[in-house]
From TrEMBL:
<keyword id="KW-0812">Transmembrane</keyword>
<dbReference type="InterPro" id="IPR002528">
    <property type="entry name" value="MATE_fam"/>
</dbReference>
<feature type="transmembrane region" description="Helical">
    <location>
        <begin position="384"/>
        <end position="403"/>
    </location>
</feature>
<dbReference type="Pfam" id="PF01554">
    <property type="entry name" value="MatE"/>
</dbReference>
<keyword id="KW-1133">Transmembrane helix</keyword>
<protein>
    <submittedName>
        <fullName>Putative DNA-damage-inducible protein F</fullName>
    </submittedName>
</protein>
<dbReference type="GO" id="GO:0005886">
    <property type="term" value="C:plasma membrane"/>
</dbReference>
<comment type="similarity">
    <text>Belongs to the multi antimicrobial extrusion (MATE) (TC 2.A.66.1) family.</text>
</comment>
<dbReference type="GO" id="GO:0015297">
    <property type="term" value="F:antiporter activity"/>
</dbReference>
<feature type="transmembrane region" description="Helical">
    <location>
        <begin position="239"/>
        <end position="262"/>
    </location>
</feature>
<feature type="transmembrane region" description="Helical">
    <location>
        <begin position="197"/>
        <end position="218"/>
    </location>
</feature>
<dbReference type="GO" id="GO:0042910">
    <property type="term" value="F:xenobiotic transmembrane transporter activity"/>
</dbReference>
<feature type="transmembrane region" description="Helical">
    <location>
        <begin position="314"/>
        <end position="338"/>
    </location>
</feature>
<feature type="transmembrane region" description="Helical">
    <location>
        <begin position="137"/>
        <end position="157"/>
    </location>
</feature>
<keyword id="KW-0472">Membrane</keyword>
<dbReference type="InterPro" id="IPR044644">
    <property type="entry name" value="DinF-like"/>
</dbReference>
<feature type="transmembrane region" description="Helical">
    <location>
        <begin position="94"/>
        <end position="117"/>
    </location>
</feature>
Length: 440
């Protein structure tokens, strides 16, 4: 049943979709921030181990984001064309993909966790200890990945039919339980990093169970359909390449930061998790764009879709600027929430000006990402992200390493990445070639 019939011409429709999505998107990174604070007080080596292990796990989730974003666009077009059962069927097929990819990741993690974490930690200060902690955390936390991917698929079809309220309950409830469980396992049971990983798995498995139950309640056919799976994988290919290039940036950033020492990578973890939290807050506007733009184009309302795109871009700019003010004002206190180490605090301040200055631009980029995903213009998104990575970030970040520019140099490289994306996506949005009617 649809819980929402908002039109994209109504600003309240955007807000009504975006606010529940904001809570859903914020729940996981907020939990990660809590987990970072809990582990951070174990020591800087443990915090660095969580940073590397969490970076690898986030790559898996980010690469599978097409299960949410691609499914939202496809389901929204069918929903806009009046075919709700077809929209739900997109969720069934996405869930099959989620289960297959999730199980594969668990198996790979058991074999490759050690070599990959040693590669990322390098041979710098504390490198061996960081790698050992990261590998231990990753092997356990990987069992939550099937749940993460099933939740992504569930979010995708439910956003497509403009139901953002049930996902709010599913995700928020599971993460609140896990946030309470984390300190008990880490400190009360004395499990340290192992307790952190176990709390992650608990939240992710519970959330997945709730999404699967919602899908079963639709009483739709559950068998796999190869033609739909192939179509979803075609969209996923472009979104995965886009995401892979972004994750290459963040993984490279973590690797370079690790080579500057445990304090540097610990500070990078704090700034990066706050960045991810802000990014997902901003992404709530993009979720509304995916659903509304997809529905408008599925119904043939091209002018309405373009109007929504303008509103979404403005909303992203305003929200990004607001977050920049808050994060800038919190500079004296936020790092201390996550670590009591003075060296970590000093390193965090090297990243902070870049972090704050990028937020208004990121607000526009993330919002317009949602517009193009909802329109199915994922090929362009793939290309602009590859250009931003290969011609912007990667040369900049490894130059920072070669010149020993420290954590400030790493975040300067991230600035190049965001600003190139900003220029290219604004040009695309203004030209309007993405606005093609029909249920693709």
């Amino acid at each position: 049943m649809s819980t929402l019939t908002a039109r994209s011409s109504d600003a309240r429709g955007i807000v009504t979709l975006a606010l529940p999505a904001l809570v859903v998107l914020a729940a996981e990174p907020l939990y990660v921030l809590v987990d970072t604070a809990v582990v951070g007080h174990l020591g800087k080596v443990q915090l660095a181990g969580l940073a590397l292990g969490g970076t690898i796990l986030s790559v898996a989730a980010a690469l599978a984001n097409f299960l949410a974003y691609g499914t939202t666009g496809r389901a929204a077009r069918r929903y806009g064309a009046g075919d709700r059962p077809g929209a739900v069927a997109e969720g069934v097929q996405a869930s099959w993909l989620a289960l297959g990819f999730g199980v594969a990741f668990v198996l790979l993690a058991q074999v490759l966790a050690g070599p990959v974490t040693r590669l990322l930690a390098g041979d710098g200060p504390d490198g061996a200890a960081i790698a050992a902690g990261a590998a231990q955390w990753l092997r356990i936390a990987s069992f939550g990945v099937p749940g993460v991917l099933l939740a992504l698929a569930g979010n995708g079809w439910m956003r497509g039919v403009q139901d953002t309220r049930r996902p709010l309950v599913f995700v928020l409830g599971a993460n609140l339980l896990s946030a309470a469980l984390g300190p008990v396992l880490v400190y009360g049971a004395g499990l340290g990093l192992v307790g952190s990983a176990m709390a992650n798995v608990t939240a992710q498995t519970l959330s997945a169970a709730l999404f699967v139950a919602a899908l079963l309640s639709e009483r739709t056919a559950l068998r796999p359909h190869p033609d739909v799976l192939r179509a979803q994988l075609a969209v996923g290919r472009d979104l995965v390449l886009r995401t892979l290039s972004m994750q290459l940036c963040f993984t490279s950033a973590a690797a370079v930061a690790a080579r500057f020492g445990a304090a540097s990578v610990g500070a990078h973890q704090i700034a990066l998790q706050l960045w991810n939290f802000c990014a997902l807050l901003l992404d709530s506007v993009a979720v509304a764009a995916q659903s509304l733009v997809g529905a408008d184009l599925g119904a043939g309302r091209v002018a309405e879709a373009r109007h929504t795109a303008r509103r979404i871009g403005l909303a992203g700019a305003v929200c990004g600027t607001g977050l920049a003010v808050l994060i800038g004002a919190g500079a004296p206190v936020l790092p201390a929430v996550f670590s009591g180490d003075a060296a970590v605090h000093h390193q965090a301040m090297l990243a902070w000006p870049w972090f704050v200055g990028l937020l208004p631009f990121a607000g526009v980029v993330f919002a317009l990402d949602g517009v193009l995903i909802g329109a199915g213009d994922v090929g362009y998104l793939r290309n602009l992200t590859l250009v931003s990575t290969l011609c912007g970030f990667l040369p900049a970040v490894w130059l920072a390493y070669a010149l020993d520019l420290g954590l400030g140099g790493v975040w300067a490289g991230l600035a190049v990445f965001i600003l190139v994306r900003f220029a290219l996506i604004v040009v695309r949005a203004v030209r309007g070639r993405w606005a093609v009617a029909g249920a693709r």
